[in-house]
Amino acid sequence: MDTQILVIDDSTLVRNYHTSILKDAGFVVQTAADGYEALEKALSQNFSLILCDINMAHMDGITFVEKFRAEGRETPVIIISTQSDAVDKLKAYEAGANVYISKPIQPTMLVENIRMLLS
Q1: Distance (Å, rounded) from C-alpha 72 to C-alpha 12?
Q2: pLDDT tens-digit readout, 68-80
Q3: What's the structural domain count of the chain?
Q4: Closest by Cα among 51, 46, 59 to 31
Q5: Secondary structure of residue 68 in the 3-state scheme
Q6: Which DSSP helix (H) or strand (E) runs through 33?
Q7: How crowded is residue 70: how many other Cβ atoms within 10 Å of its Cβ?
Q8: Which domain holds residue 112?
Q9: CATH number at residue 41
Q10: What backbone phi and psi angles, to 5 degrees, belong to 14?
């Protein structure tokens, strides 16, 4: 079975960039433009991993992770954000994120983190 990843970001450009990196690495990718759309998809399908931005309209990434974890879901979540201070990272980990990566990302680092979480 193919490894399916959900990419969540309100920026079309960023979603497409992350999707391109992941598809080039052999992953199957679906996308969501905000936390509400992402939560609906994440609760109705089985993803191998979720890649999520923090700053989004309607529902931010931290709230998404909290709600997703509250449903008992253990799918690995990588947070990717422009925010890089310790408080933001702590909030992400407390919400249930597995990895926190600050933008801009290095494509090889992203793929390595994904493979590590999926192994």
Answers
A1: 29
A2: 999 999 999 999 9
A3: 1
A4: 51
A5: helix
A6: none
A7: 10
A8: 4-118
A9: 3.40.50.2300
A10: -70, -45
